[in-house]
Amino acid sequence: MMKMKRQREEDRDRDSLSNLPDEVLLHIMKSISIKDAVQTCVLSKRWKDLWKDLTFLNFDKTIGFDDSIFNMFVSSVLSNRHHSTSIHRLDFITGRHRCIGSELFNSVMSYAVLHNVQQLTICMQSNLVFEPIWFSCRSLTSLKVSLTNYTQRVVVPKYLQLPALKILHLDLAVFTASDNDCADPFSTCNMLTTLFIRSFRLDDDVKILRISNSNLSSLTIGHHLSGPPPYQIEIATPNVKSLTIIGFRRHSTTTDAGLDVRTDSVIVNWLHVLANVKIMTITSSTISTLLNDLSKSGSTRTQPPCFARLEALKVKKLPSLPSLKKLLVEEVDAILEYILQNSPLARVEFIR
Known about the structure:
Elements: H1 2-18, H2 22-29, H3 34-39, E1 56-60, H4 67-80, E2 89-93, H5 102-114, E3 119-124, E4 128-129, E5 142-147, E6 154-156, E7 167-170, E8 173-175, E9 182-183, E10 194-202, E11 208-212, E12 218-224, E13 232-236, E14 242-245, E15 257-259, H6 264-273, E16 279-283, H7 284-297, E17 312-316, H8 329-339, E18 347-351
Parallel strand pairs: 1-2, 2-3, 3-5, 4-6, 5-7, 6-8, 7-10, 8-10, 9-11, 10-12, 11-13, 12-14, 14-15, 15-16, 16-17, 17-18
């Protein structure tokens, strides 16, 4: 008797859920795995084809199949969903140990582009070469590409023809020359606001990495994969408000203008690059490095930076990095005075 009562309650709850509009049910299904979403087709006729209108496809390692079944599952989902339904977001995250063939991967990417994908996230263990259909996708607004194997590379084309792209994250990227010995892949992305380059390498014929984009507001530059290189980075981003520089072995700070540079010879040059920032956060490690740099060259002979728009300079202590207490008060004051020499209205804040 109790079992029958419990069964009737479960049936009533399922019927109540089934009575919800398609839009609500599809929204709920976005929060479960793609495998579970597809399996809802066995619940009733109401659910049989509902999953085929999902606009978020999340092919990740949580699916739990071995490689061959995973490949078959992905192909089956793409071939059976309603082709008139666009893809809002597609995640293809296969993890470190899954082997994905290039034929399947290219098929998934082509399908996504042809179905007007807007947000695309890729994380896998394989070399990636941007195919023409990728970087001419007119609907793409967010692209995040990373690899799990540091021996692999993401080869970026000379120019990215992504007219709607606003967010771009790249890891283990390889840049090729677009003009003589210069790589300038981002100048054609007119809507780009956020650029994150975690790590990169330049082709042998590239001497200059140029990041030029008048719309860019947030820029993060990571480390070069081949050690200290004989190349230059040119930044032409007049509207950038947030700048993060990630060093090789130190932590970075994500701030309105973050500085944590690996080599002594670079840090003063970066200070001069940041002429238009309004809020800048530096770390105790940066102060220590800058102190060492200026003591070598002589602070009175080193041209101080000019931050005409600077409103606040924030000094932050990062975990596992030198404490401000280890620096003399006079030394800290001297560095802050040097930085703010041409910014008399800026305030100084010490933060944790």
